[in-house]
Hints:
The protein is α+β, with helices and mostly antiparallel strands. The chain has a single domain, classed as Glycoprotein, Type 4 Pilin (2-Layer Sandwich), CATH 3.30.700. The protein contains 2 helices and 4 strands. Strands 1-2-3-4 form a 4-stranded antiparallel β-sheet, covered by helices on one side.
Amino acid sequence: MMKMAKNGYTLTEILMVVIILAILASMTLPRLASQTEKANVSEGAGILGAIRQGEMAYRLDTGSYLSPASDADWAKLGLDNPNTGTPKFTYSVDGAGTGTATRAADAGSYAGKTVTLTITGTWGGDHPNVPSN
């Protein structure tokens, strides 16, 4: 009698592959999520840097800092209003020229966390991914 050749995989072999893939995915997904948030903070830091430059130029012209509240105010800093659309952060500037980026409410555990940039270039805030000075 001839033996029949085995074609395909058994259910046990397929389940083992699925289990191994699930273990690998559970190890990599948390790392990907933190990288995504670092990219979001990097984008916010870039916008804060542009706000700082605009505030410095505005102060040279007028002798004071601007706390932009409208599109026209943001235009005085040479910027489009970064708070339009669905931004990842809400941006504001105080009277001393310090820019603050507050994480949007839909950011999960990062919601409400802030990144600040003073006019002297010092980073601060309570977000875990604040850029270093």
